[in-house]
Amino acid sequence: MSLTVHHDQELDCVTLQLGERFDFSVHRDFHDACLSGRPARSYVIDLGEVASMDSSALGMLLLLREYAGADRSEIRIVNANSSLRGTLRVAGFDKLFVLH
Predict the structure, then answer these.
(1) For the chain, which residues make up each domain, given as ranges?
(2) What is the CATH number of domain 3-99?
(3) How far is Cα 59 from Cα 10, in angstroms, rounded to an integer?
C-alpha cells in the first residue's frame, strides 16, 4: 500500500503519508482512510515521498475538504516538493488548504 494512516485519537487528527505516487491507484485506500465514518477534527496530508500527482489526487483532496466541512475544515498539506507546490498553486489549492 502506498498510503500510511495515523489517527491521533487525543487530538482527533488523521495524518496520511502518501508514497511515491498520489494518483487513482490510492483512491480506495484514501477513501477508506478519510471518507468513511465521522470526519476527524483535522487532517495532515504528507506529500514528502510523492514524486508525481495527477488530477484524481486533486479530486480526492477536494472530496476530503467537502467531507471535512469545507471552509470549516482544517486540512494541512505538508512536505510537498516545489513541483507539487506549483501544481497545487496553479490549481488554486493554496486558497483552499494550508500548504506547508
Answers:
(1) 3-99
(2) 3.30.750.24
(3) 29
